[in-house]
Structures are given as C-alpha cells and as structure tokens.
Design a protein that fits this description.
Blueprint lengths: L4 E2 L6 E6 L2 E6 L10 H16 L5 E6 L4 E3 L7 E2 L2 E3 L5 E2 L2 H10 L4 E5 L2 E3 L1 H8 L2 E5 L3 E3 L2 H4 L6 H10 L1 H10 L3 E2 H6 L5 E3 L4 H13 L3 H15 L1 H17 L2 H11 L14
Parallel strand pairs: 3-4, 4-9, 5-10, 9-11, 10-12, 11-14
Antiparallel strand pairs: 1-2, 2-3, 6-7, 7-8, 12-13
Helix pairs in contact: 1-2, 2-3, 3-5, 5-6, 9-10
The structure holds o-succinylbenzoyl-N-coenzyme A (S0N).
The site of o-succinylbenzoyl-N-coenzyme A (S0N) has 25 residues, from helix 2, strand 10 and helix 4.
C-alpha cells in the first residue's frame, strides 16, 4: 500500500503527494464528482502549487470513489451565465483550469475510473495522458442538458480523435466504453481497476526518469502547434528561460549594469 502524504486541506478536493507525484482528487463522490465553482477554485490553487513546487514532477488528476472520474459541472449550481459561486457570481472557471493543465510545464495524467462525462470528460481530454480502468465510461452531454464546450472540449477533442468522431461524440451524446475510448485514441491505456493506481504511478515514474526540461519543451511544442499565439508564447517563454541560462544573455545584462558595451564576440556561434 502506497503512502500518499497530504499537501493541503481543501473542502472539495484532496491533494496529496507521493515521490514526485502530486495527486488532485475531486472529492464529491455523492454527486459523481461533479464540480462546483469552489471545487474548480481549489483545483486551480492546487495546480498553481504544482507549478511552483520543484518537488512535483508529475500531476495526477482523478475522482474519489469507484463511480466517477467527474460528471462535469454540478447542475445544482448552474444559473444564467455560469455556475454560481458562494457570492452569487456565475462562473465558468473550469475553463481557467483547462488552460492551467495545458500550460503546466509538467506532465498531467488523468486517472479515470467510472464516468468521465460532460465537463468532466473535457478535463481528461486536456490532460496529457489518460489512463482508464476497464469500467470507465466517456461522453459529452452538453446538447442534452443545455450546455456545450466549443473550446478545448471540441477543437482539441477533434485533434485527439479526429473531426468525424468528435462530431459524433457531441452530436449524439452517447456514452463510450473504455475499450471504445482506447480504439479511438481517446485514452492511452486501459487496465483492470485494481491496477489503475499502480499503472499510473509506473507511468509517472517512467516520465520522472526522463529529462524534465525535454518533456517540458515537447509539451510546449505540441501545444504551440494548436494554441496559436498563446501556444507560441508558452514555447517562446521556455526558450527565453533557456536563453537566460547562457553566458550570452548574462553578458548583455551585466554590461548594461556595468555601463559598458556588451562583448558578445567570444561567445560560441553555432551553425
Ligand atoms: C454521470 C452519470 C451518467 C452517472 O449516472 P448514475 O451512476 O446512474 O448516477 P446518478 O444517479 O445519475 O447520479 C448520482 C447522483 O449524482 C448526481 N449528479 C450526477 N451528475 C451530476 C451533475 N453533473 N450535477 C449535479 N448532480 C449530479 C445525481 O443527480 C444523483 O443525485 P441524487 O442521488 O440526489 O439523485 C449521470 O449522473 C449523469 O448523466 N450526470 C450528468 C452529467 C452531465 O450532464 N454533465 C454535464 C454538466 N455540464 C457540464 O459539465 C458543463 C461544464 C462547464 O462548466 C462548461 C465548461 C466550458 C464551457 C461551457 C460549460 C458549460 O456550462 O456547459
């Protein structure tokens, strides 16, 4: 039995850590882990921690209990304009979390057991990898329940499974088995439920043996192709970070502070 250590207390999520892996668990099993504005705010806070903390190398997103990964937005909170928070403000703050997952410079694995439905399905789609139990069930429901996600939930879904399949998923609002999800490339692997956590940890450990910077650049590059100027900004930000590590960039800054002309002549000029 693996010992996960609690990172921080929240009301609607669990957040714990095991040997480089931070695990965020949506903890509303009574509602099939449907998320409220608070759940989403807490996920956002935990993801921010994951970004800042150097000890976190891989993030796992999952749902509590054996019934659901996440059943999307909690419809008890749905008002006009979004899901209404404790102050009466309607929000679609899950969109911010989708962006956070996508731009986190570390791999994020969705560990899916049970239903991944609606906005919960989109959450697994935006993760870098999805590992499903044999009983996992996938699907969008928006057009059936008065909502839709025409952002990553549609466009990135289409990049993952192809345009025809993405349209089928949204236009028919069917549910798909884990086997079907694997066949359409919607998940990376399917394992018996007893092996779900072990497999997820093994995949995370495998990634932690590899160069974190290489994985970071690959993630940014894969995003950049799809995310327009925001994607390029991310990749360019990483390039800038690497440039700042060079003597060349150091010399520029140093020269300015020493009020002299920079001397870039002795530095390597690779072909
Ligand atoms: C998940 C389903 C298939 C499970 O069925 P099952 O096992 O038969 O359980 P149930 O008896 O149905 O459920 C158990 C209890 O859990 C409650 N519950 C389940 N899902 C939700 C939910 N989403 N909100 C609130 N409660 C939920 C049930 O009501 C039940 O409670 P009791 O015991 O009191 O009866 C099945 O539950 C199901 O189909 N659920 C609904 C799934 C769904 O349609 N989700 C989509 C919701 N909308 C979004 O996700 C939108 C996301 C979003 O925020 C967004 C993001 C970007 C852009 C736009 C949007 C947007 O607003 O659309």
């Amino acid at each position: 039995m693996r010992q996960w250590t609690k990172i921080k207390d929240y009301e609607e999520i669990l957040f714990d850590f095991y040997e480089g892996i931070a695990r965020i668990t949506i903890n509303r099993p009574r509602y099939r882990n449907a998320f409220t504005p608070l759940t989403v705010a807490e996920m956002s806070d935990a993801l921010y921690y994951c970004r800042e903390c150097a000890d976190v190398r891989v993030v796992v997103l999952t749902g509590a209990g054996d019934k659901a990964f996440c059943a999307g937005g909690d419809m008890n909170y749905k008002g006009r304009g979004g899901y209404v928070d404790g102050k009466g403000v309607p929000r679609l703050n899950v969109l911010d979390v989708q962006k956070q997952i996508r731009s986190l410079p570390k791999p994020v694995i969705a560990m899916v057991n049970g239903f991944a439905i609606g906005g919960g399905h989109v959450l697994h789609v935006v993760c870098d990898l999805s590992i499903a139990s044999e009983s996992a069930i996938f699907g969008q429901t928006g057009p059936k329940v008065g909502s839709f996600d025409a952002g990553f939930g549609s466009s990135y879904l289409a990049r993952v499974v192809g345009q025809k399949k993405a349209r089928e998923i949204w236009f028919l609002c069917r549910q798909y088995s884990a086997k079907e999800a694997l066949e359409m490339g919607l998940v990376n692997t399917v394992v018996p439920v007893e092996e779900l956590e072990n497999t997820t940890v093994e995949w995370a450990q495998r990634m932690m043996e590899l160069s974190p910077l290489a994985l970071r650049m690959i993630k940014a590059g894969l995003n950049a192709e799809l995310d327009g100027q925001a994607g390029i900004q991310e990749l360019a930000g990483d390039a800038t970070m690497l440039y700042y590590m060079t003597d060349e960039a150091q010399e520029g800054g140093k020269a300015f502070l020493e009020k002299r002309k920079p001397n870039f002549s002795k530095l390597n000029n690779l072909p």
